[in-house]
């Protein structure tokens, strides 16, 4: 029996006393609100009747006061502000938000950011939220290091946070100006909004933590200005467990605001990560030599702030490992769009790599390749160092001084200052080792699974890594790095020299039904040739010929070159693969292909959305005056079911589906070399 859907109005009425269902923890905690928005919101009805006051309070950019972490803010109401839903995440409404009725007009209007009705009166839903739950819409303050340089105050320049449902904060992006809009108009283009909706759900379905998309809307009545151009306007309703980013701490560090840093850290510990036991973390003695260099300064006696730092570091290490394993590049990894939880967020010029090259970036504006796929793990670590610098007083004080530091009663003399510095240095030493371990361990594990190998069997762990003694931890770390060097790095060298499609290689490799790999004449067995059929055309045709020639050096007896780097790398990769396979699958029954697929079938997506797909879909929207959503819905369906083609609805646009998965089409130079800019 299908459960009856519930309108948001009924949901609120049924949960008046249930703060686990409905809340707004960010504004209900000990965080500082922008004073300039308090009184106008306290008298919101009168404020709404004064257009100048409304615009000055909520829709005019300004530098907020020291310590401010958010401002109350309402969506901007413009003429012809009609919002037309184009995509609805029905599964999220049903499964994450208690079978919320996404067909109910009042519910839909709320999630599209309607704060007032046609008479400029507060909607009944918002009146209920304010009166019964003390919930108000708000925008967060933060700063950030962008392309390595500090950019000052940033903040939610076009985002309004609505409320928390079931522990997820729901917000609108593109709802108009806020106090943090700076030089921009607070709007979002429809093109950027639909790209964010699709990639959010694609990554989540692949298994990469991401912010989520709930609703995509088109606002046909007004445009978003981008430079000299006016572009169709969109709005994406999205949600996440938290929207706090490393840049949320940067703003307080910039202002030397220790209270702001401490209160935000306390909030994150209580509401985001939770305070954990020491045994939830790798033993520090496994990470560094406690007897070398500075005195340990009691780093073994961890405070909750030490653990918070470790949580942020560990989460981000695991996140970037998954990005790199799947060939996903964010394109702009500034501190203001690096989540404290390692959640992929704030999508601009993102993309999946097509032909492997560690210098590749989807961002046409990133001429220095700072955010290239090969740099992502280094950049996230750089960002984490900036975050750690903001935490210096909290992590440096240790249990010995933390109370005095937080209460501002400690007289920091030269000796105490040295203690704070030395303890911080020691902590940075071990969190760097911890970051490196978790990145490499997660990355190698993910790549092994994509190749049909079980990390559990290869590493033979009988307990969690946090429980390992020093000898076993060192052994595991060495094993991980050996596999990375002897298996994965060799494979990447081959992929780079052949320019075969990165994702397709793994799909084809899992179909190879043998672990034998070399013929008597030293050529590679033909069973592996199919892995190299999808070669991306290069702008220079001679470069394409070189890639094809490199493939021939592996399989064609007339062109075989056993001394070439590509032969040595692929031979070495297959040799190492054979060793790992034999050691980990001795007791398995079934064919090689069957055993591989047990591991890899939910690790190698049959479809990933590429620039080529995004461009075609957006053109179809433009050509139908944004009313023809068939291709948009098809892209959403395929992107959110990447491992199961049976869910792609073959009866609908099957010709499009075939073309979108046709590697011959995808590998054409005009389709595989697209880049994006930062504007959205």
From TrEMBL:
Annotated GO CC locations: mitochondrion
Gene Ontology biological process: cell redox homeostasis
Keyword Ribonucleoprotein found: no
A GO MF term: AMPylase activity
Cofactor: Mg(2+)
Entry-linked InterPro entries: SelO
Keywords per UniProt: ATP-binding, Magnesium, Metal-binding, Nucleotide-binding, Nucleotidyltransferase, Transferase
Top-level lineage group: Eukaryota
Family: Belongs to the SELO family.
Protein name, as recorded: Selenoprotein O
Organism of derivation: Hanseniaspora guilliermondii
């Amino acid at each position: 029996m299908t459960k009856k859907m519930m309108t948001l109005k009924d949901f609120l009425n049924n949960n008046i006393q249930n703060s686990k269902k409905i809340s707004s923890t960010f504004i209900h905690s000990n965080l500082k609100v922008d004073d300039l928005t308090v009184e106008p919101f306290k008298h919101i009805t009168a404020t709404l009747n004064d257009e100048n006051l409304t615009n000055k309070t909520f829709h005019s950019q300004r530098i907020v006061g020291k310590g401010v972490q958010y401002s109350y803010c309402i969506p901007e109401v413009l003429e012809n502000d009609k919002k037309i839903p184009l995509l609805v995440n029905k599964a999220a409404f049903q499964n994450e938000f208690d079978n919320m009725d996404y067909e109910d007009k009042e519910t839909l209007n709320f999630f599209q950011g309607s704060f007032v009705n046609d008479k400029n009166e507060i909607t009944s839903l918002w009146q209920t939220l304010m009166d019964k739950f003390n919930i108000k819409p708000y925008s967060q303050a933060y700063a950030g290091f962008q392309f390595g340089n500090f950019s000052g105050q940033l903040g939610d320049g076009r985002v309004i946070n609505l409320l928390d449902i079931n522990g997820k904060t729901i917000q609108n992006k593109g709802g108009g100006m806020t106090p943090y809009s700076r030089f921009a108009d607070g709007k979002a283009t429809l093109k950027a909004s639909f790209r964010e909706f699709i990639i959010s759900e694609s990554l989540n379905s692949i298994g990469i933590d991401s912010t989520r998309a709930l609703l995509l809307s088109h606002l046909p009545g007004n445009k978003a200005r981008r430079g000299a151009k006016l572009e169709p306007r969109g709005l994406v309703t999205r949600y996440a467990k938290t929207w706090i980013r490393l840049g949320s701490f940067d703003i307080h560090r910039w202002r030397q605001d220790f209270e702001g840093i401490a209160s935000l850290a306390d909030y994150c510990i209580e509401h985001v990560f939770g305070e954990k036991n020491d045994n939830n973390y790798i033993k520090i003695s496994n990470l560094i030599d406690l007897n070398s260099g500075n005195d340990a300064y009691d780093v073994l006696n961890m405070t909750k702030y030490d653990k918070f730092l470790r949580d942020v570091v560990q989460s981000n290490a695991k996140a970037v490992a998954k990005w790199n394993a799947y060939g996903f590049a964010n394109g702009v990894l500034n501190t203001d769009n690096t989540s404290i939880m390692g959640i992929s967020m704030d999508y601009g010029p993102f993309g999946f790599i097509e032909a492997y090259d560690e210098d590749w970036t989807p961002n046409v504006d990133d001429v220095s390749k700072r955010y290239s796929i090969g740099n992502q793990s280094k950049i996230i670590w750089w960002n984490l160092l900036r975050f750690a610098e903001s935490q210096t007083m909290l992590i440096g004080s240790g249990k010995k001084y933390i109370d005095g530091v937080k209460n501002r009663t400690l007289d920091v003399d030269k000796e105490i200052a040295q203690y704070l510095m030395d303890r911080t240095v020691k902590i940075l030493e071990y969190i760097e080792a911890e970051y490196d371990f978790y990145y490499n361990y997660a990355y190698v594990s993910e790549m092994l699974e994509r190749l049909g190998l079980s990390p559990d069997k290869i590493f033979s762990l009988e307990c969690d890594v946090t429980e390992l003694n020093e000898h076993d931890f060192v052994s595991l770390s060495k094993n991980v790095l050996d596999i990375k060097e002897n298996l994965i790095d060799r494979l990447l060298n081959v992929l780079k020299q052949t320019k075969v499609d990165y994702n397709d290689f793994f799909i084809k490799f899992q179909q190879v039904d043998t672990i034998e790999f070399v013929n008597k004449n030293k050529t590679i067995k033909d069973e592996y040739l199919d892995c190299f059929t999808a070669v991306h055309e290069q702008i220079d045709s001679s470069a394409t010929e070189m890639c094809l020639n490199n493939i021939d050096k592996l399989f064609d007896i007339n062109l075989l070159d056993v001394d070439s780097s590509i032969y040595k790398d692929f031979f070495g990769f297959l040799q190492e693969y054979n060793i790992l396979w034999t050691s980990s699958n001795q007791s398995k029954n079934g064919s090689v292909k069957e055993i591989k697929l047990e591991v890899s079938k939910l690790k190698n997506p049959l479809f990933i959305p590429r620039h080529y797909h995004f461009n075609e879909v957006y053109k179809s929207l433009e050509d139908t005056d944004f009313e023809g959503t068939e291709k948009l819905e098809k892209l959403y369906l395929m992107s959110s079911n990447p491992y199961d083609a049976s869910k792609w609805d073959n009866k609908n646009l099957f010709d499009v589906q075939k073309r979108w998965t046709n590697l011959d089409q995808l590998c054409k130079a005009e389709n595989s070399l697209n880049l994006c800019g930062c504007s959205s």
